[in-house]
UniProtKB/TrEMBL annotation, chain A:
Organism field: Lacibacter luteus
Signal peptide residue numbers: 1-17
Protein name: Outer membrane protein beta-barrel domain-containing protein
Keywords: Signal
From TrEMBL, chain B:
InterPro entries for this protein: LVIVD (IPR013211), Quino_amine_DH_bsu (IPR011044)
Signal peptide extent: 1-23
Name under which the protein is recorded: YncE family protein
UniProt-listed Pfam families: LVIVD
Keywords assigned by UniProt, alphabetized: Signal
Phylogenetic classification of the source organism: Bacteria, Pseudomonadati, Bacteroidota, Chitinophagia, Chitinophagales
Length: 191, 414
């Protein structure tokens, strides 16, 4: 898992270095940053989401690495690879995107919730969007996709002993597997 | 119209996935099924047996050169501590449902679910039952949802892991009962260092004072007369409120720790304790100890303590009718504590054992910290600190305060 993280983190640097080397040649690659916000709509709870993605564009293709913040149920921070394809090179174009990575929990007051361990899980998001370029070669994005994230958690079971006993906690552990699915409606800006 | 059609593509994911928006949350828990044994058979089996490994240590009593250590719901380990550097696990007293104990003279008082057992420990390795006082702890009848049967006693539990789908609307707090949910009471005794009375830890719920045994449940204080040591007589029950946790006897008073505060009860009439003072604090788990002028209360967060604080409060108890807060020290996750002279020992959860110079209670100075274990309760007496941790029963030599060091360890088997 660590190796994947390292690769994900280093990918933009590697690509950026490659670009610098090739800059004086044909400039086939362009560095782009995407920031986007939106709504995650699902069966249980809706919430906002924030994302930032950095990557390289080659003609209609874009590849980058992103992170974000999801606020629903179990607040989490996904770290993911992002791939996009524009249907055309026109000012207005539809695009497809796909994200895959790891979902890290970022839970408040874990101790109060008796949470003793959390294991990162899968993060995926894929969908379709509309890209409208500005005159300065920046662009606005609107997209709709399907997001799926997972998380495992271990909690201490209830124990009167922890209240009245010598402090040694003998409560059994409760294990939870969370699998969350959301429609992701996002608005973004590319620069 | 033709311009609109392409944009409708954006709605496709909604159409495709609208039926796939349900979250799925599963909980895996352990179901415990009781194993029963005939009550008379259990009574007949209360005797000294060969030593066994410590697996789930509970309350602890130091009595002379012996340590009596509760094995939660199983019985009591008898440990020869005549050489604290090399304690020897001597024998085991089988007593299902036992979580508390107290020792006075050659009698050991312990609970067996809702019964009070009096043991003759003249020879600690060959104990015998002196008296069984039945049904004096009614709150112990209910064990993890099972009501104790008149003729049957739960001696063990069979376990089975089960997964179920649960709602995802919120984080579920508690699952099914577990084996420790049965632990609804205990005994306490402490604050005295006379040779004939065992010294209990600060988490204790049995207290011995002169000819009386005091026990607390989560809501009341019971008084037993020990004028005849072999036949404890229940004399009184005093309602205390809810969330009662620990009891600590000091001189003519009982200091009672609860979820909401510390209560001081006068023992002017030892058979009928009367509330003398109280100090309220935020909701938290809190053992308490005291000396002539100060009370020390640890407040902790964590499992069902429903608190977000972790601190040590030092209270001025010069006026017992209105204790006042002198100073608060921030800690990690404080549990049991003990004081000997000017040394204050605090079990600070994962931060291990902390030893303070408490010559000035409003200016505690950390003089030593032992890390690498989770400490829960401590008895400091006569230069030796007995510490219950998650992984071992440790002893520390503090006869030289400038060179406090660990002297022994009995491992806990998991």
């Amino acid at each position: 898992m660590r190796k994947i993280f390292c690769l994900l983190l280093m990918a933009p640097l590697f690509v950026y270095a490659q670009v610098n080397q090739q800059k004086q040649k044909a400039m086939p690659l362009k560095f782009e940053t995407i920031v986007q916000t939106g709504l995650l709509v699902g069966d249980n709870a809706e919430s906002a989401t924030l994302q930032a993605i950095a990557g390289m564009r080659h003609k209609k293709w874009y590849a980058g690495v992103g992170t974000g913040l999801d606020f629903y149920l179990q607040r989490s921070v996904p770290l993911f690879a992002d791939v996009r394809y524009d249907f055309s090179a026109k000012r207005k174009t539809f695009f497809l995107y796909g994200d895959a990575g790891v979902n890290f929990a970022w839970t408040k007051n874990k101790e109060q919730q008796n949470i003793i361990d959390q294991t990162p899980g899968l993060f995926t998001d894929a969908g379709i969007g509309l890209k409208i370029a500005t005159k300065k070669q920046d662009a606005f994005l609107i997209s709709v996709g399907y997001s799926h994230k997972q998380l495992e958690e271990t909690q201490k079971g209830f124990s009167w002993w922890s209240i009245i006993g010598p402090g040694v906690d003998y409560a059994s552990e409760l294990k939870y597997n969370y699998s969350f699915n959301r429609i992701a409606i996002k608005f973004g800006f590319v620069f | 119209m033709t311009r609109i059609k392409p944009y409708a593509l954006l709605l496709l994911p909604i159409l495709f996935f609208s039926s796939c928006l349900k979250d799925k949350c599963t909980q895996t828990y352990t179901i415990y099924r009781p194993v029963y044994k005939a009550r008379q058979e259990v009574y007949a089996d209360i005797k000294s047996k060969p030593a066994r490994a410590i697996t789930s240590p509970g309350k602890i009593t130091l009595f002379g050169s012996y340590i009596f250590l509760n094995e939660i719901n199983k019985g009591i380990h008898v440990i020869d501590n005549s050489n604290p550097s090399q304690p020897k696990n001597l024998s085991f007293i089988e007593m299902p449902g036992n979580v508390d104990l107290a020792v006075k003279g050659n009698r050991l008082y312990a609970d067996l679910y809702n019964d009070l057992i009096t043991l003759d420990i003249t020879n600690p390795t060959q104990v015998s039952v002196a008296k069984i006082t039945t049904k004096v702890f009614p709150h112990r009848m209910y064990t993890s949802g099972f009501v104790a049967d008149t003729n049957l006693v739960i001696v063990d539990w069979n376990t089975k892991d089960t997964s179920v789908e649960i709602g995802c609307s919120g984080t579920p707090m508690f699952g099914w009962f577990d084996r420790s949910a049965m632990l609804l009471s205990s005994f306490a005794s402490g604050g005295t260092n006379t040779a004939t009375v065992g010294i209990n830890g600060s988490m204790a719920r049995f207290a011995l004072k002169n000819e009386y045994l005091y026990t607390v449940s989560t809501t009341d204080l019971k008084v037993f007369g020990l004028q005849n040591p072999d036949a404890p007589q229940q004399l009184n029950t005093v309602q205390l409120g809810w969330g009662i946790e620990t009891i600590f006897p000091f001189k003519d008073h009982l200091f009672i720790g609860s979820n909401t505060g510390m209560f001081i009860y006068s023992l002017q009439n030892p058979s009928a304790p009367v509330k003398k003072g109280a100090f309220a604090h935020v909701l938290a788990c809190d053992p308490v100890i005291a000396d002539d002028t100060h009370a020390y209360v640890t407040l902790r967060s964590g499992n069902n303590c429903r608190a977000v604080i972790n601190q040590l409060d030092v209270l001025d108890i010069a006026n017992l009718q209105s204790p006042s807060l002198l100073k608060t020290y921030q800690l990690t996750n404080p549990h049991g504590l003990s004081k000997d002279g000017n040394l204050l020992f605090v079990c600070d959860g994962k931060d291990g054992l902390k030893v303070y110079d408490a010559s000035s209670p409003t200016d505690l100075k950390l003089i030593k910290q032992f890390k690498g274990f989770e400490a829960y309760d401590v008895i400091a007496w006569n230069g030796n600190a007995l510490v219950v941790t998650k992984t071992a029963l440790l002893q520390f030599d503090y006869s030289n305060t400038n060179n406090i060091q660990q002297r022994s360890s009995i491992a806990i088997q998991k």
